């Protein structure tokens, strides 16, 4: 029972990342009709916002090491510690969550520039052309990251207070021996909060109502005198922010490298297709569902029976679902039917 519960948590944790990326992908496709193969690169850019912020707050100066008295020795001490003492140490310790303050404006800017500079020229172009141009953009971004940060993964520490494990067994009545990393639980809760915020924005605000109307019938909304293009530009920027903050918070779980975006992109597109193209709820549900399925397929007991099943299980599930439900779990009629 303990192993099953842990695999469910692992699946929800991985599924949360899939759901956040797929949510942004679906939001862009539903509003703009764009199949954005550069969305995984936005997840990676968010992760490297955390890397950049951590490098900035740990900029150091050489100071005398008072702990060594036999000879004169020096050590590297971050400027923040020199200037602000304990407050500086706290900022460094919490550099990952604090880097969200850098990621949000940066990803808004990246999303705006991408949409205005490139994406808007492909609104009415065939999906194959959209895929080619956004995939090319993703490769360019990937190579820029590789040039500036190198090819190796860059570990990002979680805050010290959250670096251990929580006794989740005692929470659910399964004993005191069942533990799970605190940061993974934080990421799961954070993902739920972001997903709730996006749905609340679309459901309960006038702006979101107009966006949802534009997703259904863009021409009619335009006739009513609403500048739907400007609103869709902001939606693209919001989708970029969702991917970016998802990448920021995932860095203590998986050290980012320049391949990170592509690794999540392909699987997230499988999630979108399984959930149903254009269905936000379907993208979120499919993200968590496939995350759990992949987690159970990764168990050693399963891999002993079906070697390599963890590498292909998502594609097998996608094939079965699409054979039974060609539009996916919650796909709408008329979306991608052509």
Sheet with the most strands: spatial strand order: 1-2
Give the total of domains. Answer: 1
Number of strands: 4
User: Which structural class is indicated by helix and strand composition?
Assistant: mainly alpha
Organism: Sneathiella sedimenti
Membrane topology: Multi-pass membrane protein
Protein name: Branched-chain amino acid ABC transporter permease
Subcellular location: Cell membrane
Report a brief summary of the structure.
This protein has helices spanning 2-32, 39-57, 79-84, 86-93, 95-98, 100-117, 127-149, 168-172, 182-204, 206-216, 218-223, 228-250, 260-275, 280-297, 300-305, 309-324; strands at residues 60-64, 74-78, 165-166, 180-181.
How would you sum up this structure, described in words?
There is one protein chain. This protein has 338 residues and is mainly alpha-helical. The chain has one domain (2-324). The protein is built from 16 helices and four strands. It has a two-stranded antiparallel ribbon. Strands 3-4 form a two-stranded antiparallel sheet. Helix 1 (2-32) packs across helix 13, helix 1 packs antiparallel against helix 14 and helix 13 (260-275) packs parallel to helix 16 (309-324). The protein is globular and about 80 Å long. The relative contact order is 0.19.
């Amino acid at each position: 029972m303990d192993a099953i519960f842990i695999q469910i948590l692992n699946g929800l944790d991985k599924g949360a990342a899939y759901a956040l990326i797929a949510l942004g992908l679906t939001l862009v496709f539903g509003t703009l009709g764009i199949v954005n193969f550069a969305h995984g690169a936005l997840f990676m850019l968010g992760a490297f916002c955390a890397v950049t912020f951590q490098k900035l707050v740990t900029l150091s100066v050489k100071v005398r090491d008072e702990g060594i008295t036999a000879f004169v020795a020096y050590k590297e001490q971050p400027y923040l510690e020199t200037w602000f003492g304990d407050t500086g140490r706290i900022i460094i310790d919490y550099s990952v969550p604090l880097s969200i303050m850098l990621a949000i404006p940066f990803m808004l800017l990246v999303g705006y520039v991408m949409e205005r500079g490139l994406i808007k020229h492909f609104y009415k172009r065939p999906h194959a052309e959209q895929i080619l141009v956004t995939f090319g953009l993703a490769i360019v971004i990937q190579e820029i990251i590789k040039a500036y940060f190198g090819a190796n993964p860059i570990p990002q520490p979680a805050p010290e207070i959250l670096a251990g494990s929580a006794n989740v067994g005692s929470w659910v009545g399964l004993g005191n021996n069942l533990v799970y990393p605190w940061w993974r639980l934080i990421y799961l809760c954070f993902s739920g909060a972001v997903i709730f915020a996006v749905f609340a924005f679309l459901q309960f605000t006038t702006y979101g109502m107009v966006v949802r109307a534009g997703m259904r019938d863009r021409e009619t909304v335009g006739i009513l005198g609403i500048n739907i293009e400007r609103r869709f530009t902001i939606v693209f920027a919001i989708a970029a922010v969702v991917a970016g903050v998802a990448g920021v918070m995932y860095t203590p779980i998986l050290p980012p490298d320049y391949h990170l975006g592509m690794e999540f992109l392909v699987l997230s597109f499988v999630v979108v297709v399984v959930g149903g193209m254009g269905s936000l709820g379907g993208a979120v549900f499919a993200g968590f569902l496939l995350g759990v399925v992949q987690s159970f397929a990764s168990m050693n007991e399963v891999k002993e029976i079906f070697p390599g099943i963890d590498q292909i299980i998502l594609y097998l599930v996608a094939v079965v679902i699409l054979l039974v439900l060609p539009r996916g779990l919650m796909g709408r009629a008329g979306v991608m039917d052509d």
